[in-house]
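Support case: magnesium ion complex. Customer-provided input:
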Amino acid sequence: MPTLGRALIDALKAHGAREIFGIPGDFVLPFFKVIEESGTLPFYTLSHEPAVGFAADAAARFHGTISVAVATWGAGAFNLVNPVAGAYAERSPVVVVSGAPGVAERAAGWQLHHMSRAVDTQSRIFREITCDQAILDDPARAPADIARVLRSAREYSLPVYIELPRDMVGVPVADVKLLPPSPVDPAGLAECAGEILGRLAAAERPVLMVDIETRRYGVEDKVAALARALGLPVVTTFMGRGLLSAHPDVVRGTYLGAAGEAGITELVENSDGLLLLGVILSDTNFAVSRRKIDMRRAMLAINREVRIGHHAYAHIPLDGLVDALLARIADRPAPAGAARAPRPASTLTVDDAAIGPSDIAAAINDLFARHGPMPIAADMGDCLFTAMEIANTDLVAPGYYAGMGYGVPAGLGACVAAGGRPLILVGDGAFQMTGFELGNCRRYGWDPIVVVFNNASWEMLRVFQPESGFNDLDDWRFSELAGPLGGEGHRVRSRRELAAALERAHATRGKFQLVEVMLRRGETSDTLARFVAGFKAARDR
Ligand code: TPW
Ligand code: MG
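Agent response - structure generated as follows:
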């Protein structure tokens, strides 16, 4: 019989986890010892638990599987609340494993260190932001609890919570048996697929919109095949930017309503048969145009449910739905003329002029054209809107939850999980929050390229409220911090310097490369300017 600690690690691996991120503390030291000594999964320690959560979230997004964030009880795990809340919002299956006081300690009657209000305060908080939970305080029940919780994480693509009392780690338990997939009613699935195909066939202007669940359920290639077979134009949402990047022939662009390209906006808003696969109906995805899309004509698959018009089909997982749609059209010839060459990306004018945010997108497009695309981790701020001007490539970003501080730690998760050297896009305000995590690169041999948009400003907030002085930040000269943190920094002010610094960063391997781009306060990317105008207009309507 394995110990509970061993059984948990083996089960994590068996359910798809490929790595563990964490920060130890006394309540979780015994489990960390098992993680290290078992050697079952690579594990990485970072500096502050929010980064642990963001890195695990990004790794889960890039792999399309679960990832693991381990922390100590209370002071450690409470630091994971915000990243896990964001992972819940954006449907990323992060498995939180928190150490905890031993079962015997809980009964001793002391106030325990790291305890906020009561022994169950932490688990009650995580109940709110995870889709399933287990407290492994009973060796007889623990294997079944672990199997149930990990299946939930996979099937819902949502975070889960596992609390491991420290005196249970070495207790022998039965093996964790993988549960079969939750049952799906084949008749319901068939009726649903039939109705969707019928509505698409009847529509004059059908459109397929994809969002993050298509990545979470690993169906991007199949969705591309579906679009080709049906001759459907495909757009991504704002949150779904980067999806289907391997299929430039089917992706027309990203829907940003009033803030986006007119052609894409018209395509979506004039559609009489809009199929939304895995789409979050959020304000960031739709508010800029909420009035214009007729959701009664849309078909929405999200959260294992399909809504069409005024009715809904329950228990329809997205992967099953896509398979059912493909099976029904297998013998149809593909209509001609559906595929399109992707729109050419912007290119940089290399001169001594000052840099604007959109120039950064152009310079990165040039870099990608010369050397091939890189996976991107972006933070919240103008850097994310600028990313919309970069050619479609794998991207993780908090496009819906919109929490700052995600970019750098997510980029570290990408170093582990993206399968290529990542590019991190981050504003100076967000870099102030989590930029120091770059100091962990040297230990693990990570060498991301980090582009800091330094406008000495919370610029995105200034766009909403230009009269406020509190949006002015100091100039922290981030490039000078890079050396002591184990990287190399370059500070650039002109477009010529920007192009050269990116090229040099790309050519230098083995150390993280920080390109600090100096921008003027009050200047934003073209996309952000349009987005905020549209957002304000929607709010005031
Ligand atoms: C955790 C609110 C949204 S955008 C922004 C703030 C403070 C300013 C971002 O400044 P930065 O980028 O990074 O310099 P830029 O391009 O705008 O200059 N706290 C959290 N998340 C959010 N979203 C906020 C506050 C916010
Ligand atoms: Mg800024």
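The longest strand covers residues 94-100.

Case will auto-close in a few days if no follow-up is received.
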